[in-house]
Backbone:
């Protein structure tokens, strides 16, 4: 897919699905901004991607209004408005709901839902002003079908899905597309942190009998970000190897 002349911000772009998405956008010709709280990994990713295209690291904490505002200002000064926004930052911790604490709830909701809202709110006015833009939220199939041990995370990702649909209705008049990709279990550092026994059980439940590669999820994100999806908005696409087959 061709993204020459486009500017894109990928939150959570230092690793996993975010990094794979940033790489694919850069290879397609986009000027990519990698937004991540992990400075070391983010700078390393930007340095590597710069060999294939244009990539810039921005320290970005999606839970901080100040950090998001600084990222917006940096992109505006260097690039102007964004053409593509990919909200891929996220985090989870597997634990029985009855054993969780309000502090964990707050962290999960702030990072996985409110962070997406915050970043979108910061960059959407520029898209509205220009009358075009692509917004792709990365939720999770946990938000569609639920995930044991991730009750609050599932709720936060379900909120991202609902947010996607409502925002798509509001922004269609400005020729802005807002869509959502829901990965199933994907071979990322987050998955690697799960005990081996649980990972094996997950894999056995997937019809393809393997986890997704980050690049395979990135392919779905790039489709929504491309002109091939110009007539799609408010849609939710699962990338789960058949683990979830949701109407």
Residues:
């Amino acid at each position: 897919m061709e993204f020459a002349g486009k500017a894109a911000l990928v939150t959570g772009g230092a690793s996993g699905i975010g990094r794979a998405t940033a790489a694919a956008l850069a290879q397609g010709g986009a000027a990519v901004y990698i937004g991540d709280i992990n400075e070391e990994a983010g700078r390393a990713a930007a340095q590597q991607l710069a060999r294939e295209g244009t990539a810039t690291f921005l320290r970005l904490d999606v839970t901080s209004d100040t950090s998001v505002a600084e990222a917006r200002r940096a992109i505006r000064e260097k690039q102007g408005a964004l053409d593509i926004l990919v909200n891929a930052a996220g985090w989870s911790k597997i634990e029985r709901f009855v054993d969780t604490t309000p502090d964990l709830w707050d962290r999960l909701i702030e990072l996985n839902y409110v962070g997406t809202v915050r970043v979108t709110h910061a960059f959407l006015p520029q898209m509205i002003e220009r009358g075009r833009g692509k917004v792709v939220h990365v939720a999770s199939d946990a938000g569609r079908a639920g995930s044991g041990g991730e009750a609050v995370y599932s709720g936060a990702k379900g909120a991202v899905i609902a947010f996607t649909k409502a925002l798509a209705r509001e922004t269609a008049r400005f020729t802005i597309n807002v869509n959502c990709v829901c990965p199933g279990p994907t071979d990322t550092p987050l998955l690697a942190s799960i005990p081996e026994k649980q990972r094996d059980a997950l894999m056995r439940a997937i019809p393809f009998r393997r986890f997704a590669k980050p690049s395979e999820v990135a392919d779905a994100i790039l489709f929504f970000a491309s002109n091939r999806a110009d007539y799609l908005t408010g849609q939710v696409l699962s990338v789960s190897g058949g683990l979830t087959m949701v109407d």
Summary: Strands lie at 7-11, 31-36, 54-59, 84-87, 133-138, 176-183, 236-239.
